[in-house]
Please model this.
Amino acid sequence: MSVLENYPINEISVGQAVTYSKTLTQTDVILFAACSGDVNPVHLDKDYASTTVFGEPIGHGMWTGSLVSAAIATRLPGPGSIYRSQNISFKHPVKIGDTVTVTLTVSDIKARVKLVTLDCEAHNQDGKLIAKGVAEVIAPAEKLSIKAGELPAITIDSSK
Model:
C-alpha cells in the first residue's frame, strides 16, 4: 500500500523542489488518445509518423503536461491541493520509451490565500528540456497522509 503525504501551506517555502518521473509506453499513448479523443496519426500510426519530421510516433504533448498535474497531486503540494492554472511550452517531442522527469520548484507563495506558484520543467532521460512552464496551486491548510488510489492492470493489443 502506497501512502501519499502533502505539504500544507505552512510547510512550503520558496526554492523547495520535488521531482516526478514516468516512462512513456505504447499503452500510455493509446489510453491518452482514448480518453482525450486526440487521435492524430502522429501518435498512433507508425507508417504515417515515419513520414514526419519525427520519423516515428511521438507522445501527446499534454501527456507531458499531465505529469505536471501528477507531480502536483502526489508530491507538491500533494493531496488536498487545487490545481488552479498552468502555462506550458513544449520544446521537444517525447518518444515511446522516453523517461520524463518533471521538476516543480516553488517560486512564490501568497500565504494569506494559500496560493503557491511553481516553476515546472520536464526533461528526458538524456537531460534534454522537453517542456517548461508555470503552475498556480492552492495549497491545503492541513497535513494529510492518505492511501494512494490503485490503478487496475490494463492490457492493450497495440499490434492493430
